[in-house]
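Page 47, continued from p. 46.
Same chain as before, 154 aa.
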Amino acid sequence: MVTRPTRFAPKTLDVLVEFLSARRVALARRAATLNREVADARRGRDISDVLDDEAPAPDADIATHLILIERAEERLREVDAALDRVAEDTYGYCVRCGAGIPLQRLRALPAAANCVECSGRFTRSLAYRSHAKPGGIRDRSRVGTRILVAGGEQ
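Result:
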């Protein structure tokens, strides 16, 4: 992408960068805390816990924590990418089409990499792909059907 002049006034950009930095710290702490909790849960496991059918499965808690860690780390990568775009003077521009991302969107989602239109296109594309997969929703309107009536098929 071509480097462009900064879209925002320095004070506005400073506020957004400050928010991104604070978000980065919070996400890093959250991921570290969750990692410690998973390590503690694994250390505290006893073989009798696994074999006890009446006790809740400790693996469920660990699995939940692992999902939360994955989400926190993904958000952390998004924030880091946004801070990289600030350093490259490309922050505030859509990474797909190059259009400016509205300030209102960046205030709500400071790590946003796409404009509203591209983000909507991506979301619609994912929704379409999920319906087109085997086992997903299929259009059965063209499939020949037989109607069962009293006395036989029609």
